[in-house]
Design goal:
mainly alpha, 2 strands
Length: 295
């Protein structure tokens, strides 16, 4: 039998990866749930969040809070970019066939990827962990870096915060109403166009924040956008497209299956995740916590 301490460490590793994925996938799921758009370029916003955070850290230099300001600045910059994309380009495709939306967001991936290569090059970049989170703590016999503990706590905190926003505020009620019946909401006098932009901005903010926070733990390289968008789509398919808590559950399941899959079947760890997704699609095509689409 494997050592329980080792299993605990493996589980924590999977949870850490899950919380990073949740930050990305929650924005993707939110945009789909309200706007009905499968935004392939969401991974590009994540990648740009990492690059912008790196650039801001270089600008801020030796400021003790440089990383935190850079992470917040990067998330806000990507939120603005997302708002411009939705306002100037994407909104003209809402009435079109979904294929046009997919082609547009895929084209956006190519444009943003090349733009990142022009500005930052093709080499690997990295950001140092903030000094206050540079150490480690022993938890149940396992040495856990402080930065991983921070991410483990941040994920549930963001999940709870967004649940409160969606279910306990007037704006959240509008967002949920738009997901159910946007025409009726518009007939009641709500500016649905502005609401759509706000939701896209919020989803883009989460993508940028996820990219900024992953930078101290993972190399910043071209192509990281394609890798993350595949993982994010697996998470939202497992949990249920448009379901916030489904996304959280899907991220946790994905992280654990991948972490223990590497332990049990090193050569087939990725296969185990796709096999899980296939099983979910067969048994519940709308995801674990999603709702069947109306036909």
């Amino acid at each position: 039998m494997p050592d329980p301490t080792f299993l605990f460490a493996q589980s924590l590793s999977g949870l850490t990866a899950a919380m990073f994925l949740f930050l990305i996938a929650s924005g993707l799921s939110l945009i789909f749930g309200v706007l009905g758009v499968l935004n392939f370029a969401h991974g590009s916003f994540y990648m740009l969040g990492a690059y912008v955070a790196y650039q801001l850290v270089q600008v801020l230099g030796r400021d003790p809070a440089a990383f935190w300001w850079a992470a917040l600045g990067a998330a806000c910059a990507i939120a603005v970019l997302g708002g411009l994309v939705e306002r100037l380009l994407l909104r003209h495709l809402y009435a079109k066939d979904v294929l046009y939306q997919l082609l547009f967001t895929y084209a956006l991936i190519l444009v943003l990827s090349d733009a990142a290569k022009v500005v930052w090059g093709t080499g690997q970049l990295s950001i140092a962990r903030p000094p206050e989170l540079a150490g480690a703590t022993r938890v149940l016999g396992t040495l856990v870096p402080h930065y991983e503990l921070f991410v483990l706590l941040l994920g549930p905190a963001i999940a709870l915060g967004f649940w409160l926003l969606l279910h306990r505020t007037r704006a959240g009620r509008f967002v949920r109403a738009a997901a159910l019946d946007r025409e009726m909401l518009g007939a009641l006098g709500v500016n649905v166009s502005r609401l759509y932009t706000s939701v896209f901005v919020l989803g883009s903010f989460l993508a940028g924040l996820g990219g900024a926070l992953i930078a101290p733990a993972k190399a910043i390289v071209p192509g990281m956008d394609v890798e993350i968008i595949v993982e994010a789509f697996i998470v939202v398919v497992i949990g249920g497209l448009g379901s916030f808590w489904g996304t959280f559950l899907g991220a946790v399941i994905y992280g654990q299956v991948l972490s223990f899959g590497i332990l049990i079947f090193p050569r087939f760890s990725i296969f185990s995740v796709f096999a899980l997704m296939a099983v979910v699609l067969i048994l519940r095509p709308w995801g674990l916590l999603g709702r069947p689409l109306k036909t």
